[in-house]
Amino acid sequence: MTKTITMDDLLKEEKIQQLTQGEVVDGTILSVQKHEVMVDLGPLGVGVVPRREIGFGKELAIGDTVTASVVETELDNGTSLLSLRKAAKDRGWDEIQRVIDAAETIQITPYDANRGGLLIELEGVRGFLPVSQLSAEHYPRVGGADKDEILQRLNSLIGKSLSVRVLDADRKANKLIFSEKEAIKDGLAERFEKLKIGDTVSGVVTGVVDFGAFVNVGGIEGLVHISEISWERVNAPADYVKVGDTIEAKIIAIDKDRLSLSMKQLQEDPWLKEVDAFKSGDATEGTVTRITPFGAFVQISPAVEALVHVSELGDGESADPEKVFKLNERKSFTVLEIDKENRKISLSLKGKAKVKKS
Predict the structure, then answer these.
(1) Do 255 and 297 belong together in one domain?
(2) Which among 289, 259, 286 has a CA at the least distance from the CA of 274?
(3) Residue 2 — pLDDT band, cuts 50, 70, 90?
(4) CA–CA separation, 49 and 53 (whole Å)
(5) DSSP 8-state assignment for residue 175
C-alpha cells in the first residue's frame, strides 16, 4: 500500500535536510514571550530561542531580524532549537581577534562586579576586567583593603562606559581579559613627559588610607604621604581630605608610574615663623604629646614640637620617661638648642640649662 505524502511531510523533510547542528541562520522574530522567542526561518520552518540563549542586554521585538546558531535541528514540537548567544559569540571572537591584531582601544560597559573586578560582555563573549587593571581614576583605593567598600566602588562602575584594550584572550579556553591601564598607557607617557618636580598640579582624591591620600592627576596616580599633608602633626589623613575632594599639591618626586605629592609645601611653614619666638636658655611651657624610651616630645607652640632627651630629665640616662611624664600634661622646660636647618629643638627638664660648649 502506497503511503500518502502530505505537504507537512515534504516541509519537514526539507527542513531536516537543510538544517544542520551548528549552522548559522537568519530569521525574523514572530513572538517575544517571557521564557522564549519564536523565530521564522522561512522555508526552514520555525525556531525557538530560550531566554538564556538570547544574550545579555538584548532587547528584541516582533519583526526584528536576528542571526542564530542551530543547537538542535528538530524538537518534539517540530521547531528547531536556536541560540542567539552562540551565534553572537562566534562572530564576537572574530571581531575580538581583529581588535587584538589592530591593537585597538575599545569601549566596554560592565554589567556586573565582584570583589576581583568587573564583568563584561563584548560581542556575545563574556570577559573580565580585574581590579589591578583599572586606571588611577577608577581604582578603588580604600583604607585597610575593606572588601565591602571595594565592591561598592566597583558597583558604581556598572553601566559606565570605559576605554580598554584586550590584555589576554584565549578562544578555546573562553578567556577574555581587559585592561583600562593599557588603554591609557600611551597618553600617560605623554603627560608624564610634561611634568617635572616642583610643578603645582590639581587632582581629585580617589582614596584615603592610614599612610596618606591617593590623588588622580589627569589620569596619573599620585600619593600625598601622611607626612606631606600638613605642617601640623597628622594622625589621620581622613581628618584633612576625603574621597572626591579636589586638591592642589606640589610634585616632589616622579616615579615610574606615580607622582609623589605634597600639600604642605604649597603653604608657608609655620614652624619657621613660630620658632623665632624661642632662643637658647629661655624658659618655656609645653604639653607632652608622646613618651618614648629615649625621652618625650613636647608641643611648645601650635606648630613647634621639641624633644626632651632622657639625659635631660635630672637622673642621667637611668631616668624613666614613663614615670616622669604623663600624656597631655603641661610642664616647664628650658630651651637648650635650636637647629633650624633640621627643624629640631632640644629641651631640658632640669632646673638650669647646660652651657653650650664652643
Answers:
(1) no
(2) 286
(3) low
(4) 6
(5) E
Single out the residue in 227, 243, 266 at which a domain terminates. Answer: 266
User: Do residue 121 and residue 70 come from a single domain?
Assistant: no
Task: Kindly state whether residues 131 and 108 are assigned to the same domain.
Answer: yes
Whether residue 78 is predicted with pLDDT greater than 90 in this model: the reply is no
- Considering the domain architecture, whether residues 177 and 192 belong to the same structural domain is answered as no
Statement to judge: residues 192 and 178 lie in one domain: no
* Three-class HEC string of 267-330: CCCHHHHHHHHCCCCCEEEEEEEEEECCEEEEECCCCCEEEEEHHHCCCHHHCCHHHHCCCCCE
Is residue 12 situated within a structural domain?
no
DSSP letter assigned to residue 236: -
Length of the chain: 358
**Which residues form the domain of 132?**
103-183
Q: Residue 286 CA to chain centroid, in angstroms? A: 43
Whether residue 345 has pLDDT greater than 60? yes
Q: Is the pLDDT of residue 178 over 70?
A: yes
Report which of 329, 275, 282 is spatially closest to residue 304, judged by C-alpha positions: 275
Q: State the Cα–Cα distance between residues 104 and 97, nearest whole angstrom.
A: 10
pLDDT beyond 90 at 106:
yes
C-alpha–C-alpha distance, residues 280 and 163, integer Å: 61
* Residue 98 domain flag: no
Dist CA 145 CA 150 (whole Å): 7
Would 5 be classed as within a structural domain? no
Average pLDDT, the chain: 87
Task: Report the phi/psi class of residue 281: left, alpha or beta, with left for phi > 0 and alpha for psi in -120 to 50.
Answer: left
Q: CA 71 to CA 233: how far, in whole Å?
A: 68
What is the structure's pLDDT at 272? 87
Residues 199 and 177 grouped into a single domain: no
Look at the chain and report how many structural domains it folds into.
4
Residue reference for cell 629643638: 345
Residue 310: is its pLDDT beyond 70? yes
| Mean pLDDT value of segment 271-292 | 92
